[in-house]
Request: fold
Amino acid sequence: MLLVTTLILLTATACARQHPGPSAAPQAAFEQRARTVADVWRAAVAGPAGDRWRTGLVPLEELTVPPARGFTDDTWHAFAAGWYRLRAPLPTNPAGSTVVEFPDRTTMRVPLVDARTAYAAMDRGDPPCQHPDNPVPPGSAPGAPVPTPAGTGADPTAPVGAPATHTCAVLTVTAVAPGTTELATSRGPVTVPAWLFTVAELPEPVARAALDPASLSAPPQPSVPPWAEAPQLASPARLTRVDGNRLTYPIGISGCDRNPVGLAYETDDLVVIGGRSDPPTGGPCTGALALPQVTVTLAEPLGSRVVLAVGTGWPLIRTASVW
Reply:
């Protein structure tokens, strides 16, 4: 089975709260690995490698912050892919700087970016399909998505690592204004200046934190022992959504595996996540990668706890996903 990995958020110590799994053997192997990951992480952030984690500005989510409501499958796909069209003038305010205040009342001065730079960071080009503002790709019917590449195995219909079919939605920016947004960081949530992009297809603006990326630090990536993974266990590729005590993320499994579920090891200072699946029932398997989304429900809201991938032991940055 193919292993995919990554991690997210803070530090301390406590008793683990158990999350029963459908099979005792994979659950026990997952929890043993999660305890190792937790120990390595705590040691890493307590030492020199954790200096920036403790004293810098380390975002634990992308700087483009989606609205909390109003997405359809198509508009979420467009947001995750970065498909925008600009129908509004961009403010010409000078970038300047800001003072960020953390929950412990400490502060840090950070340079900002202007609206044009913020929009350029959000906009990742046009969808690979016909749209009113885009030409029809060769061989495509008007309004039809461009087919995604077939798998390389014997079965061309097997799951592949490609975006799902969609309707080529694009987010139309109709106004741009300065404002603020809340951003998850290694030192807790902070309110920062942002550019707010009003989008015709959404009921609330898309926010882009106006922080200069050059002033931000990346999370530590501690070295964890190699993982002799148990059969049917998997690690997350990213963290896509956090809703209170519910975490949603994709796990990498074989396209022939069945019934993917999430697994979580939870303490007062961190959460380690992964997943498992049932093996194929029989017959040939191409071994193609599938990335199903799974959800785990924690005993308590995530809050400012760090989320770690069981495979790499690294923090997972909250990232929109088109998978």
User: Anything to note?
Assistant: Residues 64-135+158-215 form one domain.
